[in-house]
Specification:
Elements: H1 3-21, E1 23-37, E2 40-53, H2 56-75
Antiparallel strand pairs: 1-2
Helix pairs in contact: 1-2
């Protein structure tokens, strides 16, 4: 296989994954002080879920670019 076809296949995989999952979720932990009265302190651990979204346009562009590269890689 030619390098263009290999890169095209990788882009197709990335595009399909981006369209299927539409983002990455992760959890962070934060320690927060609830009460602070001199020597008396009460702390709590709070878990927050955050998300990094993927644009559907990014997935479609990667998929289309991958298809084009596979076709070009096969022609030459």
């Amino acid at each position: 296989m030619k390098p263009a076809a290999i890169v095209g296949i990788l882009l197709i995989i990335v595009g399909v994954v981006a369209l299927a999952f539409q983002g990455i979720n992760y959890t962070t932990r934060e320690n927060k002080k609830i009460v602070d009265l001199g020597p008396l302190q009460i702390d709590a651990t709070v878990e927050k879920e955050k998300r990094i979204p993927f644009s559907p346009i990014l997935g479609v562009a990667a998929l289309a670019g991958g298809v084009v590269l596979v076709i070009v890689g096969q022609r030459k």
